[in-house]
Amino acid sequence: MREANSTDKHVGNRIRTRRLMLNMSQATLASTIGVTFQQVQKYEKGSNRVAASRLLQIASDLQVPIDFFFEGLPPPDGPSGRKDDGSYEADVSDFFASSDGLSLAKAFMQIRSPKLRRCIVGLIQEIAAEAR
Question: The domain at 6-97 falls in which architecture?
Answer without folding.
Answer: Orthogonal Bundle (1.10)
